[in-house]
Amino acid sequence: MSAHAAMPGPVRTGSAPRTRLPSALIATPVVIGIFYGFWTASINRRGGDVTAANIGLGLVSGIVIAALGLGLLMIQGRLMREVRGAAFGALFGAGTGFLYAQSGESVFGASMMGALLGGAMFAAAFYVFYTRED
Predict the structure, then answer these.
(1) Which of 28, 32, 67, 85 could anchor a disulfide with 126, C-beta 3.0 to 4.6 Å?
(2) Which residues contact 122 (CB under 8 A, 6 or more apart)?
(3) 84: number of CA atoms within 13 Å, CB side?
(4) What percent of the chain clears pLDDT 70, i.e. is strictly above it?
(5) Would you tell me how many other CB atoms lie within 10 Å of the CB of residue 51?
(6) CB-based contacts of 23: which residues, under 8 Å, 6+ apart?
(7) Residues 50, 55: Cα–Cα separation, whole Å
(8) Tally of CB atoms within 10 A around 36
C-alpha cells in the first residue's frame, strides 16, 4: 500500500497574523480624506483667496480623517458591534462638527451638530452591524 507524503506548508514563526484589507476598502478612506481635505479648505477660505494656510489645513485634515478611517477599518473586526458603532459615530460626529466649526459657527453649535450627527451615525451603524452579524 503506498501513501503520498504531504509536503509541509510554510511555517510562520514569531509573527502575528496580519490584517489584510482589500484594496477597494483601503481606497474608500483615502478618497473620503481627499474630498474632506478639499471641503475643509474650501469652507475655511470663506470665498476669499486660496492661501497656504487653507491648503495646509486641507492637507492635514484630509490626512487625519483618512488615517483614522483606515485605522478604524483595520481594527473593526476585533470590536464588539456596540463599540464599533460608537467608533464610527464618533469619527463621523467629530468630522462633521469640525467642518461645521470651519464655517464660523460657535464652538457650542458645532459641538451640538457633531453630537447629533454622530449619534445618528451610531444608530445607523449599530443597526447595520446588528442585522448583518450572525
Answers:
(1) 85
(2) 85, 86, 88, 89, 90
(3) 17
(4) 84
(5) 12
(6) none
(7) 7
(8) 23
| Unique residue bearing C-alpha cell 476669499 | 48
Q: How far apart are CA 58 and CA 117, in angstroms?
A: 22
Question: How far separated are the first and last CA of the chain, in Å rounded?
Answer: 46
Q: Looking at 8-80, list the stretches that DSSP marks H as alpha helix, in order from N- to C-terminal side.
A: 23-45, 52-75
What does the buried/exposed string (b/e) look like for 3-26 if buried means 16 or more CB atoms within 10 Å of the residue's CB?
A: eeeeeeeeeeeeeeeeeeeeeeeb
Helices (H), 76-106: 81-102
Contact 118, 89 (CB under 8 A): yes
Q: Which of 14, 19, 7 is nearest to 77 (CA)?
A: 19
Q: Could you tell me the pTM of the whole model?
A: 0.78
Cell 449619534 found at: 119
Q: What is the mean pLDDT of residues 18-22?
A: 66
